[in-house]
Request: fold
Amino acid sequence: MNKSTIEQNINRVLKSTGLKNLGEKKVGKVRDIYIQKDKLILVSTDRHSSFDRIIAHIPFKGQILTQISRWWFKQTEDIIQNHVLDMPDPNVIVGKKCKVIPLEMVVRGYISGVTGTSLWMNYQKGQRDFGGFTLPDGMKKNQKLDEPVLTPTTKSDEHDRPVTPKEIINEKMVEPELWEKLSKIAIALFKRGQEIAAKKGLILVDTKYEFGLDDGGNLTLIDEIHTPDSSRYWKLDSYQARFDDDKEPEYFDKEFLRLWFKENCDPYNDPTLPEAPADMVAELSSRYIQIYEQITGQKFETDLETPIEERITKNLKNNKV
Reply:
């Protein structure tokens, strides 16, 4: 899909849903979740959040996130079962209802990042012992780690807190046996992701996984997997040369829209935000489409005629959801 088609459909976005007779509705950052007795109807909207609030609506983003997740779930189902029961619409996953494990399993393949919790920022401050692993002196920013590492955080509605394996066991977040299983599976998923991404000309830098237990107590991968919202990707072909020259890697960039808001308002405190420039919204949509096509090898296709919520309602009805 070219940029002019996106621009013509700039207002074709799913901001929220009001689907009838699907159960209690819970609103997340990006998804509207309808809760039923034994399953969840997860509808990905086009909401784009930053600064703890919605800053824009990006055409086709919800569909892309859903379809990338679905593609990756299929690539990894031999490692662990996932929650997907059905995908009756490009924006919808019907998922098995699970008891959520209160941890986000963050896996990193490179020493990188600029946030307060990032490996590089803490390494620069002199930290070498990260609880579950130790890093040697003399590492450079964006250097590949010998092996992927786990930096789990608590899963909370407020702020996620980094935790060590020792704290996880001592605070009885999960049993030791389950922690071992979670660790092994998270690393296996990440290695599979890196292997497949490399064939697509990409580096899977870091990501996060969420898990739950189904009715039978079986460990299940839930939420999303290896999407551009839960993961960071760099371009593979230019990485080494840029690393050797102390340059930042080329990467899938969503930051430009965030920076525009920082320059044009106080996004944390202003009661209302200015509208994001249409050309920037179209550019971000185009980048989501490009990474979808690069990862899956499939051309992005969508219905540009039927209103999105009408299409979802029809597809759910046709699939007896």
